[in-house]
Amino acid sequence: MFNITSREIEETLAKLEARNVRLREFGFDALRSVQDVVQAALPLSLPLLEIGTGKGRFLTELARHVEQVVSLDQDAAEQRIAQIQAIARGVARKIHFVRADARHLPFPDQAFGSVISMNTFHHVTDPLQVLQEMVRVVGSNGKIVISDFNEEGFDALARLHRSEGREHPRGNAPLSLLAEFLRVRGWHVERRSGHCQDILVAYGPAGCTM
Q1: Which of 53, 60, 181, 192 is 20 to 30 Å apart from 89, CA to CA?
Q2: Residue 2: per-residue pLDDT
Q3: Which positions ≥6 away from 68 have C-beta within 8 Å?
Q4: Residue 198 and residue 45: Cα distance in Å, rounded?
């Protein structure tokens, strides 16, 4: 399916586990965090789109609970790591990877039943444009789930990155801003929480029963 060797899988998984250990040293349990977000997001109507593949920690956990998911990112190297994780976890057949800019999603209006994104918006330079695109492709019957680090999570990542001589971005898209953007357009928005995560769950105007 992918031109990936068993040696590359073994080496990549070892690096990811070493990184997970390092993250836990600073108070962030990546597996617990993704499990919390998946549970807060379910159920998710298909077709399902993920914005921001990253290294695939969230994607491969999500794929255990759904039949199919399209995952979009601009970074080919990150998506390759995600592909390796998907193969290792036995969910690769459920995932279709797309490389594209989330500000201009290459999908028609109302193409998806749900759109979901975890720990991506603090990297996004034009968050409201991305959110507008999410609204467009999911339609008024759809569901949008966005999760990003809470203060505890951002603090853990900041301390880790500082220990490596780097800085971790916080972005300019607090969930309160995204929630208000959706509310004024008639969406019903709920706020939930998980390990180091703030979670926004929004239901389109035509699908709201509240």
Answers
A1: 192
A2: 61
A3: 46, 47, 48, 94, 95, 96
A4: 21
In tens, the pLDDT along 23-40 reads 999 999 999 999 999 999
Global pTM exceeds 0.85: yes
According to DSSP H, which parts of the chain are helical? 6-25, 30-41, 57-62, 76-88, 127-138, 151-163, 175-183
124: tokens are 């996004």
Burial annotation 72-110 (CB, 10 A radius, 16+ → b, else e): bbeeeeebbbbbbbbbbeebbebbebbeeebeebebeee
**For the chain, what is the largest distance between any 2 Cα atoms, rounded to a whole number of angstroms?**
51
All domains in the chain, ordered by first residue = 6-203 (3.40.50.150)
